[in-house]
Design goal:
The complex is a heterodimer of chains A (109) and B (191). With 109 residues, chain A is mostly helical. Chain A has helices at residues 2-13, 28-50, 53-107. Chain B is mainly α and 191 residues long. Chain B folds into two domains: 1-109, RNA polymerase sigma factor, region 2, helix turn helix motif (Rna Polymerase Sigma Factor, Chain: A, Orthogonal Bundle); 110-191, Arc Repressor Mutant, subunit A (Orthogonal Bundle), CATH 1.10.10.10. Helices cover 74% and strands 0% of the residues of chain B. Chain B has helices at 3-11, 15-37, 40-57, 67-98, 122-133, 137-148, 153-160, 164-190. In chain B, helix 2 (15-37) crosses helix 4. The chains are: A mainly alpha (109), B mainly alpha (191). Chain A binds chain B through residues 5, 8-9, 11-13, 15-16, 18-25, 28-29, 31-32, 35-36, 39, and chain B through 19, 22-23, 26-28, 30-31, 34, 40, 43-44, 47-48, 51-52, 55, 114-118, 121, 124-125, 127-128, 131, 147-148, 175, 178-179, 182-183, 186-187.
């Protein structure tokens, strides 16, 4: 049984000995050229669309708008943090002034 | 015309020189791809992608290796890309089938019959190809290049960027794995 199985496995392992090389269907180069042309024309359509003055102008406007929005939002947040800082400073100052008075009042018999 | 002159012309986008390159190496590329992918249509598709890549990246080819080695490397990497894409598609279809959206996937592909195999070996070769499909990628690559492309260990090493001894060990492991997979198949067929 084992010998029979080993023989079958050996036969399968040797089944690719002397294999002939496969080749593509005729006119491979013609099909390749047609595909390259298709891919090229697809990129040409995309690049010609992007290169249109109106599209380029719209893209530049969009980029400028995004930049302005980012600058404005960062300026707002800076103002807000400045305001928060001054409020915090006032609170700290008030605490440092009032604490000794509070302690003084509490410490008196 | 020697290889350097040919490459110089293709770098200048010369159509005739590119045609010479394609016609010289198309069988090599197709044969490697069909051994790897086990499907004639996928092999043709991949072979076209290989030559498109050759045309696009020829300017970066520094002629440190032979053209054939360079083209083999592109072929192997394109075949791996193709297998990855196929795996991703299969996984996606499997998930879809779980939700009942796609029932067409779960069918195993039919046995692959290589057109160059002798008629008397056809059945055995189909079983062997089924086992090759299950090999880890590196072993599969080494085995296909050795058995189907008839390349020496040195040539395979150049393509895979590894030493001859590493190729030898890959092939030994591939043969062991194939034998055990074939054993399982035959036991299953006999039972």
């Amino acid at each position: 049984m084992d010998q029979h199985l080993d023989k079958k496995i050996d036969e399968a392992m040797q089944s690719l000995d002397g294999i002939e090389k496969a080749s593509p269907r005729p006119f491979f180069f013609t099909r390749l050229e047609a595909r390259m042309q298709r891919e090229k024309s697809r990129w040409e359509v995309i690049s010609s669309f992007v290169a249109k003055p109106i599209v380029a102008f719209a893209c530049i406007c969009l980029i400028i708008m995004i930049n302005v929005a980012v600058i404005l939002s960062s300026a707002n947040s800076k103002n807000l943090t400045d305001q928060q800082n001054s409020e915090q400073a006032t609170a700290d100052e008030y605490n440092s002034l009032s604490a000794p008075l509070y302690e003084f009042v509490n410490s008196t018999p | 015309m020697n290889e350097s002159e040919l490459i110089a012309l293709v770098k200048k986008k010369d159509r005739e020189a590119f045609k010479v390159i394609v016609e010289t190496w198309q069988n090599m590329v197709f044969n490697t791809a069909i051994g790897f992918l086990q499907n004639a249509e996928d092999a043709e598709d991949t072979a076209q992608e290989v030559f498109m890549q050759v045309f696009e990246s020829v300017s970066s080819f520094k002629e440190e290796s032979k053209i054939s080695t360079w083209i083999y490397r592109i072929t192997v990497s394109k075949c791996l890309d193709h297998l990855r894409k196929k795996k991703r598609k299969k996984r996606f279809a499997f998930i879809q089938s779980l939700y009942g959206k796609n029932d067409s996937l779960m069918i195993d592909p039919p046995d692959f019959f290589h057109p160059g195999v002798k008629v008397e070996n056809k059945e055995n070769a189909a079983l062997l190809f089924k086992a090759i499909e299950k090999l880890p990628v590196n072993q599969k690559m080494a085995f296909v290049l050795n058995k189907i492309e008839n390349l020496s260990y040195r040539e395979i090493g150049e393509i895979m960027n590894s030493s001859e001894s590493a190729v030898d060990s890959l092939l030994q492991r591939a043969k062991k794995n194939l034998q055990s997979t074939l054993k399982e198949y035959y036991l299953l067929l006999d039972s």
